[in-house]
Design a protein that fits this description.
- The protein folds into two domains: about 1-85, Nucleotidyltransferase, domain 5; about 95-245, 2-Layer Sandwich (Nucleotidyltransferase, domain 5), CATH 3.30.420.
- With about 260 residues, it is of the alpha/beta class.
- It contains seven helices and eleven strands.
- The two termini are about 15 Å apart.
- Helices cover about 40% and strands about 25% of the residues.
- α1 (about 35-50) packs across α2 and α3 crosses α7 (about 240-255).
- The chain has helices at about 35-50, 65-80, 110-120, 155-165, 185-210, 225-230, 240-255, and strands spanning about 1-5, 10-20, 20-30, 60-65, 85, 95-100, 125-130, 135-140, 145-150, 215-220, 235-240.
- The strands form two sheets. Strands 6-9-8-7-10-11 form a six-stranded mixed beta sheet, sandwiched between helices. A five-stranded mixed beta sheet has the order 3-2-1-4-5, sandwiched between helices.
- The longest helix has 28 residues, at about 185-210.
Length: about 260
């Protein structure tokens, strides 16, 4: 079995693969202060709930946008699983042709998503990843990674209203019934959800114009993708396992 680990700013997502088949996947909160031993116990217990032990893991691949946690998870893998993980970063074979000005600046999550999208869909396409930040990654008809856009995520936008506006409360990210809110909570939810959907539509429209590709496919991934995808017709498909699939593909290319 192979363990894929995607370390994000909000969550760590793990996937267990047997060859090309995703057997199980798990999501845990990203805790920057947790130790090697704490992560070892937590991941051991999560795998154990699916009757998987550390000795079943034959290989590991990690992508991360949280640099301080990389060494913690690497040490956890070597100490408890007895395997040296493969890290997505400079020097790894991805098969992705990066047209970015400085390829080293491209986040590991964006690379992994692009690799999976090219493998699974017809180019040109755009991957929209709804995470702590929302990223738009553009791949042209020749399967070249062009770059994209990065905007604050839904959670950041919601928290900013609470932090910076004295009389506004902290709210749950839920879709209100109407865009015209009759109370403060519904008004904030309407502005964030429907406003964010409009932002996504606007960026996708401009990307299509700039790439001269009016029919390019738009793939959404990330934990908050279903919330926004239901409020816009510019997203063609939701693929919640896109990042894990990208990790599997890169692992296979580097075995």
């Amino acid at each position: 079995m192979m363990l894929a680990v995607d370390i994000g700013n909000t969550n760590i997502v793990l996937g267990v693969y047997r060859q090309r088949e995703l057997l199980h996947h798990f999501r845990l909160s990203t805790a920057r202060q947790s130790t090697v031993d704490e992560y070892g116990v937590l991941i051991h217990n999560m795998l154990g709930m699916s009757n998987i032990s550390f000795k079943d893991v034959e290989g590991i691949i990690i992508s991360s946008v949280v640099p301080p946690l990389v060494q913690v998870i690497v040490e956890m893998c070597t100490k408890y699983i007895g395997k040296e993980p493969l890290l997505v970063g400079p020097g790894i074979k991805t098969g992705l042709n990066l047209r970015y000005e400085n390829p080293r600046e491209v986040g590991a999550d964006r690379i992994v998503n692009a690799v999976a999208a090219i493998e699974q869909y017809r180019c040109p396409l755009v991957v929209v990843d709804f995470g702590t930040a929302t990223t738009f990654d553009c791949i042209d008809a020749g399967a070249n990674y062009l770059g994209g856009a990065i905007v604050p995520g839904l959670g950041i936008s919601t928290e900013a209203l609470f932090q910076r506006a004295s009389k506004l409360p902290r709210i749950e990210l839920e879709k209100p019934k109407k865009v015209i809110g009759r109370n403060t909570v519904h008004a904030m939810q309407a502005g964030i959800i429907y406003g964010y959907a409009g932002q996504v539509e606007g960026i996708v429209r401009r990307i299509k114009q700039e790439m001269n590709a009016p029919s390019l496919k738009v793939i959404a991934t990330g934990g908050l993708a279903p919330l926004i995808a239901g409020e816009t017709d510019c997203i063609d498909e939701i693929n919640p396992m896109l990042t894990l699939e990208g990790l599997r593909i890169i692992y296979d290319r580097n075995k």
